[in-house]
Write a structure and sequence with these properties.
alpha+beta, eight-stranded mixed β-sheet, six-stranded mixed β-sheet, 8 helices
Amino acid sequence: MSKKFFIAEKDLKQLISESEKSTCIATDEIMVNGSKVGYMVRGGSMSEGDSGWAFYAGNESEEYLQDFDDAGVYSLNQVCNYDEDIIPFLDAPEGSAFCRDDAGAFIMIEEDSDSDEEVGEVNYLSEVEMKEIEAHLDEHIGPVKNVYHEIISDFIHVDILVIEPTEERNYYTLCTMGMSAIPMNVPEELREEYDLDFAEMMISLPPDWNIRDDREENYWPIRWLKILARLPYQNNTWLGFGHSIPNGEPFAGNTLLSGIILDFQASFHDDEANITQIELSTGKVINFYSLIPVYDEEMNEKLETNAETVLEKIYEVTPTQVIDIQRKNVSGQKIIH
């Protein structure tokens, strides 16, 4: 459904130069409801012409910001028509952030003196790296038809790429784009032998999964892609094959699945496809891991035995990596060869 903007296109004024070549993100609270900008932050440019600016009214809830339809990409000039107060700050450098004080004036959000990080510092993949990752997915799985752009980023900017079902490959594939912007803290003895520093996370969903629904029974796979994309950097650790991450409770009310085991991403519709790893032109080697949801009992069995055993049992029940929220619990089940 098209949006009805608060200011009609015919009523827009030219307020800044080169506006059509500079884009930004703004929420519907501003562009549709007509609220003034309450918070503005400048991240790194994601592509040519991207100013890096993102604008918020300041009253958007976390749930609101998780709905990708509640924001859009606009020219800077268009957003300036909604709030001319932002114009004096548009030349501020990357990492800058401003909010309104009690009097309604914009003030810079100062760096925390107790922190070594700059306010608003976010790590991005380069445009070349993003294009090479997307080309890799296109070659080995399918074309990326949609991208869920992250509005607010913490430390790394993580978008979600969506590869839609086809007759040949009848399931969604979702992949993070941005986790590999910086290396993980891989143990030195493994780093010397394997290329494990960089990773992206993937998950496969059945064709009838409502990926645009922000209710938890449909949103949790996206939430967990983002959780795992940031986990290594928030905890100074790393993620790789066989690692398991418990949720502590079922992901949603319609399933008892409650944890994740990581497996190498596979391409079940093409035995020759090598989706697991890519070496970029920069020399960076990225590993692709698939999120395999598991039950509590399977998580415990993995901890008592190993990931290979549990995953082999799961693939005997569901021979692909596509999620089945009601699949059989394979804990204690013998492997059939």
